[in-house]
Amino acid sequence: xxxxxxxxxxxxxxxxxxxxxxxxxxxxxxxxxxxxxxxxxxxxxxxxxxxxxxxxxxxxxxxxxxxxxxxxxxxxxxxxxxxxxxxxxxxxxxxxxxxxxxxxxxxxxxxxxxxxxxxxxxxxxxxxxxxxxxxxxxxxxxxxxxxxxxxxxxxxxxxxxxxxxxxxxxxxxxxxxxxxxxxxxxxxxxxxxxxxxxxxxxxxxxxxxxxxxxxxxxxxxxxxxxxxxxxxxxxxxxxxxxxxxxxxxxxxxxxxxxxxxxxxxxxxxxxxxxxxxxxxxxxxxxxxxxxxxxxxxxxxxxxxxxxxxxxxxxxxxxxxxxxxxxxxxxxxxxxxxxxxxxxxxxxxxxxxxxxxxxxxxxxxxxxxxxxxxxxxxxxxxxxxxxxxxxxxxxxxxxxxxxxxxxxxxxxxxxxxxxxxxxxxxxxxxxxxxxxxxxxxxxxxxxxxxxxxxxxxxxxxxxxxxx
Length: 466
Description:
The chain is mainly β. The protein folds into two domains: 2-18 and 44-319, Glycosyl hydrolase domain, family 43 (Tachylectin-2, Chain A, 5 Propeller), CATH 2.115.10; 353-465, Sandwich (Jelly Rolls). The protein is 1% helix and 38% strand. It has one helix spanning 19-23; strands at 2-3, 53-61, 64-71, 80-84, 91-93, 113-120, 126-132, 135-141, 149-150, 172-175, 181-185, 197-200, 213-214, 222-229, 232-239, 248-254, 262-263, 282-289, 292-300, 313-319, 353-356, 386-404, 411-418, 425-433, 438-452, 460-465. The radius of gyration is 23 Å and the shape is elongated.
């Protein structure tokens, strides 16, 4: 049995943007998805989430999925939390804890909120281990939904002073088959010299049960994730540089939770494949859904431009095979994966065709109707800041769901409707809103619906009209 330690469960292929798909709100095929699909093909399930996020942790509680993640670029004042009842349609929020303001000590740096690990303790309470300011903090909640609060008296669980020559970040909890909890953490500085530390925790999930030890395996940099396979302990981790094309996932095998760990013969198991537009995959976690195991991880957002200043990563999911003999099969990353227990495809609402201004081939209006979080609509510089949906005929419309480029940033927009595409009436006045999805009531009969962004700054992954 594979134990994941959770109590619960750039070579862009421009030509694939076919004119027919670009001109219509193409519904995804019902055929099985192949991992050879171009990253920009309509209907791809990867990326799993709309927007830029990294360092994911996933849990399931009472029929609902929760993904906690770093907000890109390069962390935010809060964590991102995505929730879904079906594994495909996700809603964004930001927990009240942790925040940069609330989880800062006199010794912390100016680094933001990073890399959550969420796990359920033996008593049913939930715990989060999270990096804030290059220190590890711990919080607790009665449910993954919260409310979250500090669990260590307003102090970091692992202060920067523990080992100041390394980053005290990327803490990950692991619960062994006998219920004993452990914590693993550590990274290097300036992309070199990463070290991994481990300690057993007491049942309260906060107090150390012994002295932390250095368990660093070969080629380790950061992002440790312990799993158990039979009698073997597999310490999985990342090395390379997440901001370039060298980030990857490796693993090492030990006979105890503290090792010693021997890097596996087939490590690394997940690497950059520029020819297939997979750039710097890493900082992962594992989960089980149905009878299959999966790896959830981040990789560079596409199209990838080497040397870009912003750190923009997206979260994806792929199957993984963890064997009881202590080996993990090499992973072939995909642009589209069916996950057991997830609904086959996202809720698309009404089909529509698009018009309006677009910024280049990947940012055309139809990108907001292609059921893909890899492509988005952006208006051309100086172009009309509106996106028009043609529903084909007059329909009674109830609501609009908008997924903007950044779920944590405000956007000012309004919605207008028309029977002929010439005469427009306001159905949702211009207002500042944020989130993903941003829901608006329509309650109108129309053939055409128009998004209007009077101040610019528009960018939309997907627009669903019901």
